[in-house]
User: What shape does this take?
Amino acid sequence: MKEKPAAWELLIAGVGGWGIITIGDLLAKAALKKYKHVVWFPSYATAMRGGESECCIIFSDEKIPSPIIYRSGTVMVLGAWRIKAFEDRVHPGGLMLIDTTGLQDEHKVLRSDIRVEYLPAMETAVSIGNVRNANLVMLGAYVQLTKALPTQLLIAEIEHRFGGKGREEVASACKQAFNEGMDMMASRTARGGK
Assistant: This one.
């Protein structure tokens, strides 16, 4: 993203059980420590696992007129079959982050007026020991690319959410996944693209 927008908008789409709501909540709670106004608006189907899930997060120092947005500056998709439903929901000049799990040629984004980053989030999470942390890989990539929030705010929120007595290993794995996403985008940017 070239310049800081008046409000940061992120729409996360995926499937219930993949941590879509969780990372939206983490981001919103971290944003409360930096911005005056924060909206977190989750939406999910009746099926807790496997049903469609999405959430919208907006944070700004200006008042937010609505918690609901159709188009967003950034759209993150976990679940390749949801790409087409959300491709048009990115503002021109915006960013789309996509986990490559299950990605086929027919799923790929056709728009040329947005930046699209395909990330092996699920593969990365598996390689570091916990498939359930793919959402945190994506969150790390988002923070690295947008610089919307200081990294330490997210790390503190991850420690608060997943840490505690006897849970140091869980919190450590979550922070590792988040850092892997950041590192992936940092090295990609240093190489000048994909």
